[in-house]
Specification:
alpha/beta; Rossmann fold; five-stranded parallel β-sheet; four-stranded antiparallel β-sheet; ATP-binding; ATP binding; transport; ATP hydrolysis activity
Length: 204
C-alpha cells in the first residue's frame, strides 16, 4: 500500500461536562499501534472519532489529508467496537450482505470459515452470544480490506482458535492498524508502538 497518514489535530471531546480530550495531537502512519490506558481514559472514544462515528467538539481528523467525514474516506476504514450498536432485527448474513453491498466487496467466505462463524449466519443479531457478536463485528471491519483498521479490544471474548487466527492475520496486515487492548499479546508485542493516552497532554 502507498504511504498513509491518519492525523488528529487539536482534537477536543467532552461528554456531559467531562473532558475526554483537550487539543489532542496524534499521527498514525502505515504501522501497528496499541493504545493503552486506564478504563475511561478515552481509548474507545478515540477510535470512534477516528472512524467518523462520533463528532468532535473541536479539532480535525484527517485521513490522507481528507476529513474523516468525507464519504469516500469511509471506504478506507474498518472498525470493530462493542460500542457500535448493530441492528438486532437482521440475521448475521443479512447484515454482512448489506455491508458488502455498501462497500462493494465480496461476501467474506474465507473470513467466516477462519472465525468458525458459518453456523451463526442464520441467527438474528439479538440472539448472538458475546463471542459471536465480537466475531461479526470483526467480520464487518475486515471484509472490505480497509487501509485503516481500528479494533477495540479485538481478542476479548474469542475462542482459542479464533484468537490465534486473528493474531496471525493482524501480524500480516500491512495497512495502518490501531488496537486498544489490555492484553500482553499487544502490549508486549514489539511490532506494536504503544501509545498511553494518560501521558498525552491534558487527557483525563
Amino acid at each position: 500500500m502507498e504511504n498513509q497518514l491518519l492525523e488528529i489535530i487539536k482534537l477536543s471531546k467532552s461528554y456531559l461536562g467531562h473532558q475526554v480530550f483537550s487539543e489532542l495531537d496524534l499521527q498514525f502512519s502505515q504501522q501497528k499501534y496499541c493504545i493503552v490506558g486506564e478504563n475511561g481514559c478515552g481509548k474507545t472514544t478515540l477510535l470512534l472519532l477516528a472512524a467518523g462515528l462520533e463528532p468532535a467538539c473541536s479539532g480535525e481528523i484527517l485521513i490522507d489529508k481528507k476529513p474523516v467525514t468525507d464519504k469516500a474516506v469511509r471506504f478506507d476504514i474498518g472498525i470493530s467496537s462493542d460500542r457500535i450498536v448493530l441492528p438486532e432485527f437482521l440475521t448475521s448474513k443479512q447484515l454482512l450482505d448489506f455491508h458488502c453491498q455498501q462497500f462493494c466487496c465480496p461476501f467474506p467466505e474465507e473470513l467466516i470459515k477462519a472465525l468458525h462463524f458459518a453456523k451463526q449466519l442464520t441467527k438474528p443479531i439479538k440472539g448472538l452470544s458475546l463471542g459471536s457478536l465480537k466475531k461479526i463485528s470483526l467480520l464487518l471491519a475486515l471484509c472490505h480490506q480497509p487501509k485503516y483498521l481500528l479494533l477495540d479490544e479485538p481478542t476479548t471474548g474469542l475462542d482459542k482458535l479464533s484468537r490465534e487466527w486473528l493474531l496471525a492475520y493482524l501480524q500480516r496486515y500491512n495497512g495502518c492498524l490501531i488496537v486498544t487492548s489490555h492484553e500482553a499479546c499487544f502490549i508486549d508485542n514489539s511490532h506494536y508502538r504503544q501509545i498511553n493516552l494518560l501521558q498525552l497532554g491534558d487527557n483525563d
